[in-house]
Amino acid sequence: MADFHQNGNIATLHNLRSTSTEALTAELSTFAASRRISLILPSLFSELEGEALPAILDELAQVPYLHRIVIGLDRADEAQFKHASKFFSVLPQNHVVIWNDSPRMLAIQQRLEDLGLAPAEPGKGKNVWTCLGYLLACADSSVVAIHDCDIVTYSKDMLARLVYPVANPTFPYQIAKGYYPRTDGRKLNGRVTRLLVSPLLIALKRVVGDRDYLDYLRSFRYPLSGEFAMRAPILADLRIPSDWGLEIGVLSEAWRNLAPKSVCQVEISDAYDHKHQPLSEEDASAGLSRMSIDICKAIFRKLAADGTVFSEEVFRSLKATYYRSALDLLDCYYNDAKMNGLAIDRHKEEQSIELFARNIVVAGHVFLENPADTPFIPTWNRVHSADPDLLKDMLWAVDQDAAEYT
After folding, report:
1. What is the total count of domains within the chain?
2. Which Gene3D superfamilies match (predicted)?
């Protein structure tokens, strides 16, 4: 993937294969002496039983520049929390496991609900938001990175390349987004990015006209990647979506809050593979079906907030334009995969396109029925204003859980 193309909207930092991981690590260790770097790992308990996370911990154990690792643990009972604490104890860095389902953390959740500020639903967005709050309460990190716990092709080089643009004090970037080819060496993956987001953005530009926001999103080579690095000062005002629109939502927040020169994307891997969601054609509340609806809603809401007017007719036109654009791109993906010796099932790809086309209209109906609805969790600045003691009490709750149960 080595090239040096710049799209003119955001900076693209490539891997030109001319700097070693050891050299990057040495620089990051120097930066970390005055700019502490922390890592958030949002994790389901089930991921502790998979093949990816143990290998990720083996790689992270070799990283010398991390100040703190915060693990947000979801869907775990008391015995599972105890097991998780032992599981993550292999990390030599300062680390903490936040048991999101503990009685103390549920009491924190209740306080938020009483204020009308609680996340609307459990999931990765809520988990990441809670971990960000914990780090804000610690008040000792300058750079925060986030990545998933199901990456089967993980290496410490991915983290080094992800954090370098925001850790380097001479760079202007406040947020860095990772990108990579979604392939396991056998198949071309990344269906939602390839077959939904890319053609949808093309179709939106044709149907609603030129929008700077659309050009901005189209600048990202992998807009749905779960790998971010951010400078800590922007975290308190960051609105985290609670649904599958998390990645698009964070990019939208960067668009809203930051100058374009403060945003970059960085190539972090030559091959990337993780857990694959089912298409879930029969159940719109699960799998890629739900994901596609949430992503569409996130994009529609942002465009509406910037003045775009939507109607039933617009969404019908958008569906038809998307469908044609997606089929055109599928030809490109098929030829690209064929030339690189990768498998791609055209029948299943077209099935995905048909589902996504239907879900564009479904998302449009949901949006039109309640255009003021928003899945965003309140910012931590707002929470602190409503309850100045909550962050301090969350620190206490996490510490007490560790003391009592581990």
Report:
1. 1
2. Spore Coat Polysaccharide Biosynthesis Protein SpsA, Chain A
Establish if 357 belongs to a structural domain.
Answer: yes
| Overall size of the chain counted in residues | 406
pTM of the predicted model over 0.90:
yes
Q: Is residue 5 part of a domain?
A: no
Q: Which amino acid, residue 162?
A: L
Compute the distance between CA of residue 309 and CA of residue 291 in angstroms, rounded to an integer.
Answer: 24
Percent helix / strand / coil, the chain, rounded to 5: 55, 15, 35
What is residue 124's three-state secondary structure? helix
Angle between helices 156-167 and 52-60 (to 10 degrees): 60
CB 363 within 8 A of CB 61: no
Interval 41-64: pLDDT, tens:
999 999 999 999 999 999 999 999
The answer to whether residue 1 is domain-embedded is no
Tens digit of each residue's pLDDT (9 = 90 or more) over 3-45: 899 999 999 999 999 999 999 999 999 999 999 999 999 999 9
Query: Cα angle at 105 between 99 and 111, to 5 degrees?
Result: 160
Q: Which two tokens stand for residue 326?
A: 């997606």
Query: Residue 29: which domain range?
Result: 11-405
